[in-house]
Amino acid sequence: MFAPHPDDEVFSMGGVLSQAASRGQSITIVYMTNGELGGDADTRIAEAHSVCEVLNAKAHFLNIPDSSVKATHALFLIIKKLVVDLKPDNVFLPSPQEYHADHRGTAACVWRGLQEAKFSGDAYCYEISRQCECNTLIDISTVMESKKALCDLYASQLTENNYTDVIKSINKARTYTLPAGIEYAEGLLKINNIYQNPKGYFKNIHENAFFDTLPYESPVISYLVRTKNRPELLDRCLASLANQAYKSKLDVVVVNDGGVDIDEVCIAYRTHFNRLKLVDIPESIGRAAAANTALSHAEGQFVNFLDDDDEIDTNHTQVFLNQWRRDNSIEILYRGVRVLRANGELMQTYNEQFSRGRMMMNNFIPIHAVTFSRKFIDIGCRFDDGLKSMEDWDFWIQLSRLAEFRHIPKITATYHMVGSSAASPHMQGLYDPQSHVNTVREKWLPKWTAVELGLMTSFLQQQNEQRFNAELEDARQSMMRTLTDG
């Protein structure tokens, strides 16, 4: 947490800090100034140490003269080094909408410092002296007394103003949209894209408040990308996302499953999306577990997977949106996919109507063809990390038992038959696909209901009839050729 002055940390986030301390989370508070214009500097620093002792937090003082926090390159680099050294999961900074110049200066410096540090965690703006832009409310009712006790440790400041009552009023007002049982809340703004210019970021917030009057007409869509050791293919994949006709509300999560460093690849695309989050996994955890990691970081109303060797056409997202805007009861929708050989030659297409009976027998829908509601994440649908392959088919079976798969017969994506990465299923010569098919079938066989078994039987009968009719037609054609030749 970056605090402009000693006391700002507890006035703004004393409740959240108390909760974090009770959970044993690691806390570091960086104090930008010594607060000398608000009283004796040594006294204020001693009070800050007392607060950190209660929170079991580490204190770091930059000792910038009070009212002198300026957005300078030197300060950007100091903050960059702190972030790189501490490796935080979450960073909290004041809102740029605060009244005090040091508050705004701290916001500007930390925002830029996070960019310099290539920060890929979550960043939040907090409010101190006024209600600022907010998209996250934290219930602090049960720790309000703890927050008050932390504020009381700044005895030198409580004689300057009735801060305690002012802060309680702000926290009380934040409960306006919350259930009646919540007495106090702290407001935060989770920054979806720290790599966007802060001026543009807040301008977009204000414009959206006026122009996005029908928020569900423009949902955030999360694209979840698994990758491993193929930065050149990841670059092509991300480029296809950046080229979407609809990209103002794309949330991109890249999971690096134990592969080489891909920071430089991702940095080039950070400003193209609503958010681009990179999740680095030091040692490979496998396809299914990497997919579950991606799901845990998705923030969109809808979700679409890609592997690094996949790409989507510019209209892929728009095709989904057009259908969903006509019928917002759609929870799962898929489009067609072309399969290309390494030389660019068309090998086949996947673009068939949905059949539950067929889905029970084999997979015919590539993972990046499907956009589905995050509802399925919220109710607990996950990939089976016991499966080494066919995990997407297993996931589709889960979803097919819960909702209807809608099909739009337009080809809007490409499936590249290249490589041997563990993040890609294109390894026909390296493993026995039938054994993985059998594993999924054996998993689900005891779970099928009588109705589902009936659907499977009907599909198999239909397949046999089609095969018989095809063989009959071949025999008829052969007989006709024989008669003609005779």
Automatic annotation (TrEMBL):
**Signal peptide residues on this chain, from the entry's feature table:** none
Residue ranges the record marks as coiled coil: none
The yes or no answer to whether the keyword Transferase is present is yes
Superkingdom of source: Bacteria
Entry's Gene3D superfamilies? Answer: LmbE-like, Spore Coat Polysaccharide Biosynthesis Protein SpsA, Chain A
Give the molecular function GO annotations: hexosyltransferase activity
Segments forming domain Glycosyltransferase 2-like = 225-351
Task: Supply the alphabetized keyword list.
Answer: Transferase
**Which InterPro entries does the entry link to?**
GlcNAc_PI_deacetylase-related, Glyco_trans_2-like, LmbE-like_dom_sf, Nucleotide-diphossugar_trans
Spell out the protein name for this chain: Glycosyl transferase, group 2 family protein
